[in-house]
Known about the structure:
Strand order of the largest sheet: 2-1-6-7-8-9
Largest sheet: 6 strands, antiparallel
Strand content: 5-15%
Radius of gyration: 51 Å
Amino acid sequence: xxxFPVLTRVRVLDFAMYAGTDAKPGLDHIFVPGVNVIVGINGxxxxxLLTMLLRALTGATDVPGNDDLGDRRxxxxxxxxxxxxxxxxxxxxNAKVTIWFSLGDHEFEVTRSLANLDVxxxxxxxxxxxxxxxxxxxxxxxDQVVAASGLSSFEDFVFLIRYIVxxxxxxxxxxxxxxxxxxxxGILVGDxxxxxxxxxxxxxxxxxxDSEYRNVHAVVYKRRKEFDKQTSTIEGGQIExxxxxxxxxxxxxxxxxxxxxxxxxxxxxxxxxMENRRQEIHEGRAALATQLNNFYxxxxxxxxSPARYLLAYxxxxxxxxxxxxxxxxATERVTSKLYMxxxxxxxxxxxxxxxxxxxxxxxxxxxxxxxxxxxxEADLAAMEQPLRGAExxxxxxxxxxxxxxSQLASLEGQLKALGDxxxxxxxxxDELNKxxxxxxxxxxxxxxxxxxxxxxxRQLTEAIDQEVRAISGQIEQAFAKYIxxxxxxxxxxxxxxxxxxxxxxxxxDLFTFPHFIPALTSGVHRNITTVREAGQSVSESQKEFIDLxxxxxxLELAAPNAPTMLILETPEASLDSVFVPRAAxxxxxxxxxxxxxxxxxxxxxSNVNREQMIPALFGxxxxxxxxxxxxxxxxxxxPPMIPIAERASHVLDLLTIAVPTRALERxxxxxxxxxxxxxxxxxxxxxxxx
Length: 690
């Protein structure tokens, strides 16, 4: 039999959020059997307190995954160890939470540091354990919890706490998470000792084998491709073709280098020859200018030296020293004026001077000088086209050389990757084949081991399926009883085992896992229920209450004559006014079960508002006429109303204990009036009729 934890008391010291009062610092509250309500407003720490109760039980551990459990290994994972530290200005250095709870016949008292969730004190059945290091104290706590709960592991304890007992804002879906359902049902039903431990070990081992198989298979696939490539390389003559291409490219490269050098030599020779011709032209023009200067000295004796020099320079073909003009037209114009004894500058007649016997312009020496200059200029012009051709050829050859070099490097890289030569490639192929054989053998061994594990696991899953099937009718009936208080639509769950594989591989063994599927009517389908396999197929409020009713049904079935506990966060949040009293009545009935379950606790947080959930939980719904219209049960079927004088013991009042928010400071009187009206709608203590 499984024993569920039942909280009886909580104490929080030195945590800034819960200052308490001068007479009673901090938070210290006893949870009485039946309904317990944590009353507050937004920002006073209701969620923080509920989370504190959760972490006091589980420590810094949680179930894996953020939503669906899926095919994750069934083991607990680390939770945020410093969640409470970040919510205290002093980092909760000295803050501690102590909880008292029962597990079957055993009484636990555990104190945790809120700075890091380490266990600092532990007592079981009023016998304290020696103080030790945090991890040692945690291990001792877990061992004691496992022994007292009747479960096979602390992991199962955390799973039940998260999926059954606590229904908080960050709750995990149970109805619409097939993997979580299968696990929780497997924990609740049947053998909770060796068989459950074997189930978890086999489940995790099968997932490990699946992951290992896929990893090895990926390696085999890669090695197989390499082996096939090497084999095709040998058989297809790829190496020989690559060797031939490399040799051809090397020859091309050698020829291009020779051609490039020849073109460079031709280009440099032409550049040198053209530079020589330019120098020859320059020297010829200088000599011609000297001869002409001598001519002008004898022909125009009245001219001064600068004038003669200007004319001689122009006549020699060097151009005008004033403006730099060298055009043939300008030269012809000056020459013609000189032959006409006219000044080339102003056009005035030049006086007759001493003339030599022969005209210098017609002289053989000057004419030869002119012819030499003209021949050199023609030779220079003839060299320009060959030089351009040589330069263009050099550039294109250099570019082709770069391309061939790149091709050669690529071919040599391919050849090296294949082993450079046929013997090397054969050797590499054989090495790959040996590696491939080794990995394929490992793959086959993994498959053999998986098949053996699958056979053992199938026996366990089939046994669990039969056990859940045997009590599925009771679960369905209990669910129907609870869901009526939350939904007007007809809603039911049907046992529909899921057959699925473990892991990501296809074509592996199928296993049967226990699973219930909800079905309900709607505005469109009024007379027949339709299956809702996905959570998106119902509204968010319907999803919440179907999940809650399923948890309550499982708790009732797992512990029919033993106390249990259900912790809810603001159950009125998704209810309309008609269903507040209906839901409250169901929760009251759950919390006040008789026989051995009379110590059951329901702990619910609720905001101070006018939703009437608080008085409804106490059985003191203020509008009895409206109450009579919306509930189905008669008064004799309902638990008795909690007497006014006893209600204070059922309330943990954060308006008094928590550090006030700005809203509470400003509107305290209004909030306290609303609180009192919610707790005591039928009169304050001392004023009501006995």
